[in-house]
Design a protein that fits this description.
This protein is of the alpha/beta class. The protein has a single domain, classed as TIM Barrel, CATH 3.20.20. 46% of the residues lie in helices and 15% in strands. It has eleven helices and eight strands. Helix 6 (166-179) links the parallel strand 5 and strand 6.
């Protein structure tokens, strides 16, 4: 007698289990060499059995097709659970629906629903597609209306750059939860207090949405500074001074990055964070070292 395949637990269920859930984020490569580095990182991190992995969109949705392709390949060729990024930027409702259909056809049923950053310099005003969506909460509703997708959303420990204030930002996250979000993953940050205060604000609103903190180990000084500028994350002055002192020594930079990220991770887990989401920059060494230290 044939047995039906066992149901795979949802990400929210995994986050509720004892012990932290680790997850990893990658970005679509632009070159063949970059693709080789990406797949080496994926295979090495696959051995750590993460709760899920995700693949980002480029600024303004510029890597959409590559993101879809890489995410499908992860679903088809690895044991990993991929979470597909989806943004409102530059897409009509019909296009978003078609992309979700591609994901569903590949057996991908977890989506990270984002408004997305507009193309152009930081601070550029967001202009929705004429036939598209303005808010991430609307995208959550669209995804929910199209099938049995699990939906994650973004959260911002230091507040979204366009938020009027931190309380308003918490209410936006509540709106995403009310629209049907199952979990949230934060933008990367460097101060645990920013994450803890975000969780407190959201809980005071009566929202129990699991919020996974995002961590980016510093492995390249100029790259991290650029990402911090784009995201609005504060780059601590003392960390900048330590890194600048060894800027010509890549191994020393990586060692400091691992040390700082590990200390942050330990604090977050001790305060009850349900897991940790690592922005890997398509490299596995620093992330594997932090994971080993936590284990």
């Amino acid at each position: 007698m044939d047995r039906a395949p066992a149901r795979r637990s949802s990400i929210r269920e995994r986050l509720a289990q004892p012990g932290p859930t680790f997850s990893f984020e990658f970005f679509p490569p632009k070159t063949d060499v970059g693709e080789q580095a990406l797949w080496q990182a994926i295979r090495e991190l696959e051995q750590l059995r993460p709760g899920f992995v995700s693949v980002t969109y480029g600024a303004g949705g510029s890597t959409r097709d590559r993101t879809v392709r890489v995410t499908r390949r992860i679903a088809e060729e690895t044991t990993l659970t991929p979470v597909a990024h989806l943004t409102c930027v530059g897409s009509s409702r019909a296009e978003l629906t078609a992309i979700l259909g591609q994901y569903a056809d590949a057996g991908i049923h977890s989506v990270l629903a984002l408004r997305g950053d507009p193309p152009g310099a930081p601070g550029t005003a967001f202009v929705p597609h004429p036939e598209g969506l303005r808010y991430a909460s609307e995208l959550v509703e669209l995804v929910r209306s199209l099938g049995a997708f699990e939906v994650g959303v973004a959260a911002f420990p230091e507040g979204h750059p366009e938020a009027a204030d931190l309380d308003h930002d918490a209410r936006v996250l509540l709106a995403k939860a009310d629209a049907g979000a199952d979990f949230a993953v934060t933008q990367f940050f460097f101060d645990a207090e920013d994450y803890l205060r975000l969780v407190d604000r959201v809980r005071r609103l009566g929202c129990d949405l699991p919020i996974v903190p995002g961590i980016m180990p510093v492995t390249n000084v100029s790259q991290i500074r650029r990402f911090a500028e784009l995201s609005g994350a504060a780059f601590p002055a003392d960390l900048a001074d330590r890194l600048q002192a060894v800027a010509d020594d890549p191994e020393a930079v990586r060692a400091i990055g691992v040390e700082v990220a590990t200390a942050l991770a330990v604090r977050l887990l001790s305060e009850g964070a349900p897991g940790l989401h690592f922005y890997t920059l398509n490299r596995s060494t620093a992330t594997r070292e932090i994971h080993a230290a936590l284990s």
